[in-house]
Amino acid sequence: MAPREHAHPDLREVELVTVLAALAEPTRLRIVRMLAALEGERAWKDIDLPIAQSTLSHHLKILRNAGLVQNRTEGTRCFISLRDEELEGRFPGLLESVLSCGDPVPARAVEETRR
Amino acid sequence: MAPREHAHPDLREVELVTVLAALAEPTRLRIVRMLAALEGERAWKDIDLPIAQSTLSHHLKILRNAGLVQNRTEGTRCFISLRDEELEGRFPGLLESVLSCGDPVPARAVEETRR
DNA sequence: TTCGGAATTCGATGTTCGTCGAACATCGAA
DNA sequence: TTCGATGTTCGACGAACATCGAATTCCGAA
User: Fold this and answer.
1) Facing residues of A69 across strands?
2) Over the stretch B4-53, which tens digit does the pLDDT of each residue have?
3) Is the pLDDT of residue A115 over 70?
4) What is the average per-residue pLDDT within B104-109?
């Protein structure tokens, strides 16, 4: 289907568990990080990840239902953006702490520090 | 088995996704909240939730592997506590934001405010 | 040394999830 | 109106997960 208007949940109704589950998947977390690095919206087509379109659509739906992400339709294409300000109101500090955390230290390097 | 010494991961090796997945389950989130409200440790036996022992053990294992929780063994019983300070170092603000967020507003009440 | 309590592991079961390709719906352009 | 591009939905599959009861292991007490 072409991009249709989607229901975006009122963040007050969204449960924390839903948001955490949405973020607890590598591909979706990557999408969120990508959007956060952007400070604006991103065209659907420009989200290129090594997954099928249908899979991407699925992940975006989950992010949307969790209130993390927003769709805007323009003609036949659509744009995605983070609902960061609203999220800050409902889940203060959550998005920021998720985004700010870096990669884990490889086990080998940790081993080094144990001497 | 009786409570045995368990491996607790170095938090530097723990991935954010692992932590989020551990928290993204109602029962586990409840356990974390319960421990956080305690400011100390809690006896295994005192964690009474409407689930089988084996299920509780399973959830605690996941929380432990995610670096969220710690076991201390004393004789034949064990005590659980949150690794809150270490977590703050590895994932600044995350635990706090997760703990501070309240319940969602019921859909009915949200509807009220739409007039 | 035997017994019972404490927590873990094992095996089984049903459910949810991520993934894909195919079919579909919607829009703009030719 | 026809066509191509754009996302979405559907149906199917295997993997991962939550859950349970039973078996197991370890410890302390009798």
Assistant:
1) A82
2) 788 999 999 999 999 999 999 999 999 999 999 998 999 999 999 999 99
3) no
4) 86
Q: Which of B28, B35, B101 is nearest to B66 (CA)?
A: B28
Q: What is the mean pLDDT of residues A20-37?
A: 98
Q: How does the average pLDDT of chain A come out, rounded?
A: 94
Is the C-beta of residue B43 closer than 7 Å to nucleic acid chain C? yes
Q: Which of A14, A24, A97 sits opposite B92 (nearest CB)?
A: A97
Two structure tokens written together for B79:
């005590």
Name beta bridge partners: B81. Answer: B41, B70
- Nearest CB to A24: which of B20, B103, B107? B20
Q: How far apart are the first and last CA of chain A?
A: 58
Kindly list the distances between the CA atom of residue A28 and the CA atoms of A59, A67, B9, in Å, as whole numbers in the listed order.
Answer: 6, 13, 25
Residue written as token pair 């045995």: B4
Domain boundaries, chain A: 14-112
Domain A14-112, CATH class in plain words: mainly alpha
Query: What are the φ/ψ torsions at residue A40 (nearest 5 degrees)?
Result: 160, -155
